[in-house]
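pasting for the record
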Amino acid sequence: MTTRADAARRPDRKTARPVKRGPAFRLSESPSHMLRRAEQFAAETFLKAELPDGVTLRQTVLLAAIAEAEGASQSNLVGATGVDRSTLAEMMARMEQKGFIVRLAAEDDGRAKSVSLTSEGRRRLEAALPAMRAVDKALLEALPANRRASFKATLLVLAKAADEHHEDGAETQRTARKQPAVRKTKPAARKPAGKKR
């Protein structure tokens, strides 16, 4: 005898269908995962240099970006480094406290900050550059010699795509800010219908 509880547990043959599954997802075939692994390899190679004050690869990238474009704005540095705006702001606050950078109001826009290296910041960058070069060398030497040029070319294409994606996002935000806010109006109250005579 089938109880009500048994019936609830047993799927209805008319409605129960097997779940269709797509091809299995494999991390070993995921480009995004492989890029993350390559980034980990780069960061671990950099750490082996054991720089003083625990200077990281990302901090060195930021120092190098500032050195390449003295007086750049924080927005420019977001694009140059690929570091998101809030993380970059936190990094720069710490670097300013340590005396590596100075931030001043930009001449053409008082709201923007132009960023420059201090002499201490330049010294830290110079000390970190051998470790950065070692990272680049390790990445390229992990590849066969005949694939290194195409690897660098592929990375340039991906970096350009990232820049375009960043620009599109920034343009969308600027457009959204310029549009006036839509005011919601309440529908007019309906007058009660009079009695038909």
